[in-house]
Amino acid sequence: xxxxxxxxxxxxxKPIVEHIESLGVQVRLTSRIQKIALKKDxxxxxxxxxxxxxxKGNAYVFTIIADILKLLLPEExxxxxxxxxxxxxxxxxxxNVHICCWSGTYYLSAFA
Length: 112
Description:
Blueprint: H1 8-22, E1 33-38, E2 44-49, E3 54-55, H2 66-72, H3 81-84, E4 96-102, E5 105-111
């Protein structure tokens, strides 16, 4: 196990995003997917975001809570064995609390 010499967003996430973007890939953070639209062949055509924007691409990678993915999953994908396994996946709420101390100053952050 190792420690970062700074915050996770700055020392871990930011370099990953910068590398991905250097390859010509668009990275969008805090974009909420409202619907996955499909082509006639069943592949993803685009993502409709809750702000009305449409994301089109050749390939898509996104992070999402499994319970939300179950709600967004197009009906056509539900019988596919890869996605069918989601039915057996149960999510539980997780709360992380980080308490750090530097030079006698305490920092508290909580993530739910």
